[in-house]
Amino acid sequence: MKGKFLCGLLVSLLISGCGDDNTPTEKVLKEQFSNQFHGRLILDSIDIKETSVDGNKRTYAADGLLSTGYDLYTPVASLTDYIVVQKSWDKGKDIKFSATLNSLGNKDTGWKTIFSSLQMSETPKGNPIPNVEADGKYIIMDGAGFDDKINAIKDEYARKKSKLNELNNDIAKVKTNILVINKEIDEYWGKGEDGKTQSRYFVQRDLNKELELFNKENAPYYFEKKYNAEVFDPAMKARREKLKNYRLSDFDDIRAEKRAVL
């Protein structure tokens, strides 16, 4: 009977490790726990109970307390230039947990630990916001200066609304002035023979036609042709008929007059 007791005690000591160097230290557990969860969860205290051994691999049942590495916030409203958030979790709040801890190594080689099957008494809600109190685009519900910030936003909104109304009034005035100017421009071109108000296009078209006709009638070639037909040729003919016998010099005065006219 006594031998069975001693044998059972020996097996128990082998499984538990007798507090030997294979058990990871609390410092290692806290550091690797924080690294595993990227600093979002912090291990505050832990108790472990060895459940299985395979060489330098050991499995433990773990329980204890943890907390979040940051205060967590949840957005509650979005304004034009600001986001209103509410603190939904305090980083100092303790959370009870249980987990499975797998450990590889010993005191001489160091340990690699992995926490799995993590169960928590509460689930933190929200997300961390770096420098939330210093970041001007965030307003914390019921935080320091909350009422002052809201009142400042209201004042800013009122100023912008007043400025917008002023701009809208200016735009309305400009539109009215444009209509008046357009009317004056339309009336400036006068009315055509049909009594209808003319536009710049039609006035310009008529002016171009008149200019084209004027240039055609008064161009040197056309003017000389017209002068010859109406003045020069009849004068030369009359002189020839009058003199019967004539010389070229008898027409010098007529030619001189033509040169002067042209």
Give an account of the 3D structure.
The protein has a domain at 18-73 and 91-125. Helices cover 47% and strands 25% of the residues. It has helices at 2-16, 26-36, 146-188, 200-218, 220-243, 252-261; strands at 41-54, 57-68, 72-78, 83-89, 95-106, 110-120, 138-140. It is α+β, with helices and mostly antiparallel strands. The protein has a 4-stranded antiparallel sheet, with helices on one face. A hairpin with a 3-residue loop joins strand 5 and strand 6 (110-120). The radius of gyration is 53 Å and the shape is rod-shaped. Keywords: Coiled coil. This is DUF1202 family protein. It holds the Pfam family DUF1202. Residues 150-184 form a coiled coil.
Helix content: 40-55%
| Number of strand elements | 7
Low-confidence stretches: 1-18
Compute the separation of the termini in Å: 155 Å
Largest sheet: 4 strands, antiparallel
Secondary-structure content class: alpha+beta
Strand arrangement, largest sheet? Answer: 1-2-5-6
Overall, the morphology is rod-shaped
Round the mean pLDDT to the nearest integer and report it: 84
Strand content: 25-35%
- Radius of gyration using CA atoms only: 53 Å
Order of H and E elements: HHEEEEEEEHHHH
The helix tally amounts to 6
Protein name: DUF1202 family protein
Pfam families: DUF1202
Coiled coil: 150-184
Keywords: Coiled coil
